[in-house]
Write a structure and sequence with these properties.
The structure is a homodimer.
Chain A (H helix, E strand, L loop, with lengths): L6 E2 L9 H6 L5 H4 L7 H11 L42 E3 L18 E3 L12 E6 L5 E4 H4 L5 E8 L16 H5 L2 E10 H8 L7 E6 L6 E5 H5 L3 E6 L2 E2 L9 E3 L12 E7 L14 E2 L5 E2 L8 E6 L11 E10 L5 E7 L7 E2 L1 E3 L8 E9 L4 E9 L8 H8 L12 E4 L5 E3 L3
Parallel strand pairs in A: 4-13
Antiparallel strand pairs in A: 1-20, 2-3, 4-5, 6-7, 7-10, 8-9, 8-13, 10-11, 10-12, 14-15, 16-17, 17-21, 18-19, 18-22, 20-21, 22-23, 23-24
Chain lengths: 430, 430
């Protein structure tokens, strides 16, 4: 077992070695005063200055339990979910996670993206029921208390809306990574394997699909193949150590690791076994992919390998001038584990293997990092993910050559951020 | 690589097989109507009842971004941090995490326990500085922006106050697991390895200890051995995917994986290298262990292997009558990975190996689970952890035989919950 902070991947030959960079005066001038070895007198002066006792050491701080359920620092008030564009309604809408301010792999519950079709229902857990019926031997009605007595499992898994990054035809030059990739979260989920419940009810021999229905006013419904239901599907009530948040399906949601977000039905009230897909609105009118020949791909469940650099990213600035910066981002694949991530600073002409933070889990986001010495000139930053199946995240042109530009969902091409000589980072408009 | 929801450990021979339990009428009568195979007509009747459209499906739910930084369901309003006893002051106080409501391994940031000695300072991150000085070649003063340019790492690690579970002399019969074990959290931390920073400043040949100082009004200080500083110590700014919360040290804290919580200095402002320990109040007057012979153990840094059953636990109730229940809890060791956890339902006369949730990470909590068929009689529930060093969590008597009863800190003996025939669970008073 490697140590949890161990990293996978070899530092690139061409990207700079950190120690060499930090120890020459060429980089991190803010750290070493621009000299190749800082003079002790300079450092001492600086030390004396900063050991001045700040005002917050001179008074007692705020008391305990204020509040009993904690909230972020007021200095982080801008790190919140946001809309991408002006919304038509307030209850069929979307909010995006601030990936530009993300660390590690876990998305905190307060920042998980939202997508509702009829708003967030307020559900009394004591009155909520899960019904399992249709082609089963023994239909079941479960209260939450009953459901929580079943054997439970936990796993870390990502959830991505298949409408994340709809860059088929164009990009908005003002967008940062929150707007382009913020329909992504990764959490530790706890609940009951769906296979446990299906074992309890007894599957009929003709049962091939499961209809999942939500208890919101949209009565959101999707069909799930029985193979997925019996593999790693779960009904979950816990998210990152506590009960689901209302906007994530409190008190119960379906979790289909690696499948498009829309199928992970929130406020889950019903599972009906059938012998064919149920052809609901969300798998006919929506969540299909219109191909160049006029036919539509249907039941494209698995979110394919994707990655994005979160720092530096659009809207940020390399404020320290030329020198050392860490390039950091997220990679994920609905097909399993990420095998490696490569990073380019020249728009894809050359690639360097990034370091991956252990543990690397199947169908969970992976944090990748690559050291970079910025020379102060224009640069084009890219990342590409390769998963355990050998699938390589495509370039925009490669994806469009196959799928055309009529789709809205399932865009997973390489994202490019441009760095200008003044340090400003923005989305790259080809 | 095992699947993330894979479990380690073999189901016990003596604890019941779940399927057998669920499929007989002896357990889970709420699920199967008390019959060994429920009649379809019963189930259909129940199904028809529950497919009634609930009131929350008839109206639009609340809108998007309400609020932009999310909060738990109002139905979970009692799942908060709490005090154990009446406090003397509000700024030198402690609050406890509600472990009885925990799921999986991650503690959400809003529920992480608090311990302050002079309240929570409100620190402007733009004005905060980290000074590294003393026996170093090149003293450094770092702004947060500068620090966040260094190569970063993430890891999941537990933090436990060494004053957690001070059951040396007695227990309070009214305490639940929040009061007995709630000074425990496990989070994904992101920051810079301390070894990276020490490499940058250059260690003097005499440097053997590091003094860490907090920027609160208590100016909390502790001495850290250089071996730990160069091993896995970190200065962290990220916690569970976002910036540290104020009560956890915003904008910067020390993280010493596996070491007692008090040493993980919050609001970190200074690291001073010296040739010997600094003998601060927190390592002389406090955080030492008074032995029976009148001598005190000092510098007992590592939190030894420990575990506790969180569900069912004191204050809860087996509300469904005799039948199947899952026993679930947490295990951790400051020395590395948990090797196995054993569970007893007869006060330690017999032990059964629990299942451990993968991934099992070094110096992180592990979720263990064991199936249990309650026969409706009195029972005494216990768990004991064994870590990768072979260390076995001791019984109370074994611990007291060695350490006496004069200590306050570092109690890690086996916890016992009693189950009464009426289903009530309470702390066991020997």
């Amino acid at each position: 077992m490697v140590k949890p902070h161990a990293v996978k991947g070899t530092p690139s030959q061409q990207l700079p070695d950190r120690r060499a960079v930090l120890k020459t005066g060429a980089a991190l001038s803010a750290f070493v005063g621009g000299a190749s070895v800082p003079s002790l007198s300079m450092a001492q002066a600086a030390t004396g200055l900063s050991l001045t006792v700040p005002e917050w050491m001179k008074v007692q701080g705020r008391g305990i339990l204020s509040p009993p359920y904690g909230v972020p620092s007021p200095f982080e008030k801008d790190v919140v979910r946001r809309q991408r564009e002006v919304r038509v309604t307030d209850t069929a809408a979307t909010s995006f996670s601030p990936l530009q301010n993300s660390f590690g792999t876990i998305t905190p519950n307060g920042l998980c993206f939202e997508r509702h079709h009829a708003g967030v229902p307020s559900i009394d857990p004591d009155r909520h029921r899960l019904v399992i019926h249709g082609l089963v031997e023994r239909p079941l009605v479960l209260t939450m208390d009953e459901l929580m007595r079943f054997p439970s499992v936990s796993r870390i898994a990502f959830l991505e809306c298949s409408g994340n990054t709809p860059n088929w035809k164009s990009v908005n030059p003002d967008f940062g990574v929150q707007q382009t990739h913020g329909l992504l979260m990764c959490c530790e989920w706890t609940g009951v394997l769906l296979s446990t419940l299906l074992d309890e009810v007894g599957l009929g021999p003709e049962a091939k699909w499961v209809l999942a229905e939500g208890a919101d006013a949209a009565a959101m419904t999707r069909s799930v193949p029985i193979a997925k239901a019996l593999d790693d599907a779960m009904v979950v009530y816990g998210q990152n150590g506590e009960r689901l948040r209302p906007e994530q399906g409190y008190p119960l949601r379906l979790l289909l690791p690696g499948y498009e977000g829309n199928m992970n039905i929130k406020w889950l009230r019903r599972l009906k076994l059938g012998d064919q897909p149920f052809e609901t609105r969300e798998e006919t009118s929506k969540y299909t992919d219109l191909m160049p020949d006029g036919k539509a791909r249907q039941f494209t469940f698995v979110m394919e390998a994707k990655s994005v650099i979160t720092r530096p990213s659009g809207g940020q600035r390399l404020s320290g001038g030329p020198g050392f910066y860490e390039i950091s981002g997220l990679a994920w694949s609905g097909h399993g584990r990420i095998d490696r991530v490569e990073v380019s600073t020249d728009g894809g002409q050359s690639w360097h293997e990034a370091q991956l933070q252990e543990p690397i889990l199947s169908k969970a986001v992976v944090r990748f990092r690559a050291p970079w010495r910025w020379d102060g000139k224009s640069a084009l930053l890219q990342s590409r993910a390769i998963d355990e199946t050998g699938y390589v995240q495509p370039r925009h042109g490669e994806l469009v050559d196959v799928r055309g530009v009529n789709s809205f969902y399932h865009y997973n091409a390489i994202q490019t951020w441009s760095v200008n000589p003044d340090g400003k980072v923005a989305i790259h408009v080809a």
